[in-house]
């Protein structure tokens, strides 16, 4: 064991190691760029040949990652491939694949397990195998460990197994892959040491924890913390609305307290890959131990109800204008899950569009980051983004502000829209044509 670990350490320190990134999306692509930037040879694996072709041409498919960054990585030797047999060439395999929910709102580990099964025939001694995908505590030990050891390789001796959860925040200019501290847990002490060295080459601060299970639960706590607090402020929004109080003004005032309060902001529902999904991973696993996570599930119920709340607000606002949702032309502003990104994963805006369409509305959208509505498993809209002009805005019965991108001209919208339903608190002043939702 000592010799294998020493050889791996030497290759990592001298940047002779080859890094394999599996899954070249919002997590894997920035990580690939970081390893390439510091001088490592990187091989990127993905099952989507379209992504591979784009990367080989130096073209990015994520808005906040420029083509120049991809071209620079290719110039330094980065390769993208769909050929998993090339896993034998790498010293580290880092899995950055999706972990969605199935139709029963239960964890779907198929991407993790299918990817691991595809890699297992090509594993060799001296490699690091790291999982970054969000999952429930025990996944690495219960699912990945036996698959890896089915090859005859001994984890902690021949190969090193770690869990290090991703902490990407797409579109956040204040933090990068390098500057966001990285939690890392290993199956054994040798695994942990390998993981710390792997990530320590490219991340400013790596935080060791005692086990893979601890690292897995850390990731869930981070996002469940946000989900619960967003659930609280969403419920407060409903209370404040009944009292004719602007919840956003309340939050701004409360945020002036220099201790004991962290501002969270209400919206039309939760979006992104992590926050709407992570609570279900923990509640599902907790049942194995006879624990009912009532507090977490209650927050989930509140957050899941927000699209219906916003639709009710649209219906009420149109009713005051002597119109029904059925037959009304409604323009949804912003369909990404948060502002200033092109990421639509679990976006509540799409749920709003579906609900309004089912009620008979004529739906359109405008989003400067998403020019064409993409193909999504559960939703089908054959739409392109509407240009925001005075003429276009005035043609709609209602404009629903769902995601408050900074690129929107809010003055133009206010001046020309007949009716605005604001689910993000972007408009501070009360006006005749603005309804807070």
Q: Which features does this protein show?
A:
single chain; 437 residues; alpha/beta; Rossmann fold; 3 domains; eight-stranded mixed sheet; five-stranded parallel sheet; 15 helices; 13 strands
What does this structure look like?
- With 437 residues, the protein is α/β, with parallel strands linked by helices.
- It folds into three domains: 208 residues, NAD(P)-binding Rossmann-like Domain (Rossmann fold, 3-Layer(aba) Sandwich), CATH 3.40.50.720; 94 residues, Rossmann fold; 131 residues, 3-Layer(aba) Sandwich (Rossmann fold).
- It contains 15 helices and 13 strands.
- The protein has an eight-stranded mixed beta sheet with strand order 3-2-1-4-5-6-7-8, with helices on both faces. Strands 10-9-11-12-13 form a five-stranded parallel beta sheet, with helices on one face.
- Helix 8 crosses helix 10.
- 43% of the residues are buried.
Number of helices: 15
Outline the biggest β-sheet: 8 strands, mixed
Approximate helicity band? 25-40%
Order of helices and strands: HEHEHHEEHEHEEHEHHHHHEHEHEHEE
